[in-house]
Amino acid sequence: MSKSLKTLSDDLWKNRVEKVNSELFTLTYGSLVAQLCRDLNYNYAEVNAHLEKMGYNIGLRLVEEFFAQTNLGRCQTFRETAEVVAKVGFRMFLNVVPQVVGVDEKQFSLVLDENPLAEFVELPDDGKAFKELWYSNVLVGVLKGALEMVQLEVNAFFVSDVLRGDDTTELKVKLVQVLKDEIPVGED
Amino acid sequence: MSYYFAMIGTKDNPIYELEIGTYKQSGDGTPKFPTEMKELNPFIVHSALDIVEEVQWKNNQLYLKTIDSFYGYQVSAYVTPGNVKFMLLHDVKAEESIRQFFIEINDLYVKMLLSPFYNFNESIKSGSFDMRVRLLAKKYL
Amino acid sequence: MSSSRLLVSGVGYDPAVGPQSTGPQVQQLATSTSSLKRQFSASGGAHSSIFDKNLHRAKHDISLSSLCYLFGEIVSWCDSKSRGVQQLESRLNNLGYSIGIKYLELTSLRENFASGNISSSSKSHATKREVRILEILQFINSSVWKGLFGKMADKLEKSQDLANQYMITDNLPLISKYISVPKEFQHLNCAAFVAGIVEGILDSAYFQANVSAHSFPEPGLPLKTVFVINFDDKVIKRESMRFER
Question: CB of B29 within 8 A of CB of B139?
């Protein structure tokens, strides 16, 4: 299963994804976060919330492209979902493959060894940012939005971030409930 | 052998300053500027800026070498493509190692600049930046 | 972890106080550089990591659509804070501007030191700093466009009518391709951002200018965009004083 996902994502990345240098992406995201901090008066809780909301909107739209490109069917288990998100989703959009850890039917964690959003970022030294800002919080929103589109309501949040001085960057995803099947995804 | 190093932004504002002595020849890194010089150092460097602005349009190199002197002290300059000036006030001639020093500072500066929370022309207060500059000074000066 | 981070942090420059002489750091620096390096990496903290990274390593790619989704959200957010298209474009321009400043330094550094060591000036043919208008524009046309978008800009022209005006044309701006904002504004919005990047580069290289983006669709090139660059008079004066005979 894992192997075929890897093959799929390698093939996708090589042949079907239009690529661009990540630096413009990194710089643009950085510009956004910095501006948000200024606009919201360095209220990091609000910045986190804003980033999550933006990510959520992105997640809702990104899923369409995901299914169009991958033709993957429904995941049967939450474990499968974790694998697909990490090996195909992240690979396809960010060209990184986070490690999946702590998986069971109700939750999983993604450990990012590489984070294109946070290259060359140093958090401000104001005593608050290290404790309150989740710089890459847009990813939280993307996961929530994307998984909602496949009928999975989840809670996602960062547990640790190397920008804060932690050893790893870890994103936890917890299943809240499976939403009622209104329209099966992928079928008309 | 003592050094006064300053990074000057585009509004003639210092964004970083350091006084350091040499570690070579069993020096301990303490600068030995006489008190009068200590007060004058920023002014000497500041007036040298005018010369830099003249020279930089004639010479498209980043390292401008020694551009001014003052009672046995020399001022060497390096201008980045974004017009941040690295100025070094020194009392010994050491063109090549100063050049290497400036090049590494340039690398350090760009890394600092890339962080979204650092705004151009802002003072660089970061402790780790300061530490790195001191290490570079120890290595080259 | 926190105690080692304190060591890594050091004191830092305080502009209110001025230059620090070595003082208390002497003991720490007197130990060998390698042991300090070990301490830096042991802390594993944010403070050490950005300076340890290599600016010249192999480039990382991501999908273009990620950039477009992000940009779409940015436009929506800027739009929500603006009254009217002018303000929106101005906000996007500002976001691009700070990127331009950073990108100029980054790209120049890479170009100048791509060969590994900086060789003596006579041997290296890479220009170090641009001092002429045409040079900086060509730098933007090729190095900057290539670095950001993976391709060179399509045309660089000087205006026939105005001495201080130049134009850079991009037949298919990358970000415009997939953007999903109101159709009337889509090209202009992305372009205002890129115009900001160009303006940031020019201003910080001391070629002060105003840069604006204009849509010039034509058959086969519906997204063609022209960036109009109007240099300040003093830049033109300086150029003619120094370089024209």
Answer: no
- The structure tokens 């994103």 sit at A171
d(CA A113, CA A97): 8
Domain covering B2-140 in this structure, CATH number:
3.30.450.70
* Number of structural domains found in chain A: 1
- Chain B: give the shortest CA distance to residue C153, in Å: 21
Shortest Cα distance from A60 to chain C (angstroms)?
11
Q: Which tokens go with A2?
A: 């894992």
Q: In this predicted model, what pLDDT tens digit does every residue of C156-202 receive, in sequence order?
A: 999 999 999 999 999 988 877 766 555 555 556 778 999 999 999 99
Cβ–Cβ of A33/B116 closer than 8 Å?
yes
Distance CA B14, CA A52 (A): 38
| Stretch (H or E) spanning B137 | helix B127-140
A182: confidence class by pLDDT, cuts 50, 70, 90: low
Distance to chain B for C92, nearest Cα, Å: 16
Q: Structural domain of residue A33, as residue ranges?
A: 2-178
- Entry pTM: 0.89
> Which among A176, A186, A86, A101 is positioned nearest to A139, based on CA atoms?
A86
- Backbone φ and ψ for A120, nearest 5 degrees, come out as 60, 30
**Nearest-5° angle of CA C165, CA C171, CA C173?**
95
Q: Which value does ipTM take for this structure?
A: 0.92
The series of mean pLDDT values per 10 residues for chain B, 141 residues long, is 92 93 81 84 91 90 91 92 94 91 94 94 90 92 87
Do C211 and C135 share a structural domain? yes
Residues of A in contact with B111 (CB under 8 A): 120
Q: Which residue is closest to C122 within chain B, CA to CA?
A: B61
Compute CA C6 distance to the chain's CA centroid, rounded to the nearest angstrom: 32
**Count of domains in chain C?**
2
Looking at the complex, does the CB of residue B70 fall below 8 Å from at least one CB of chain A? no
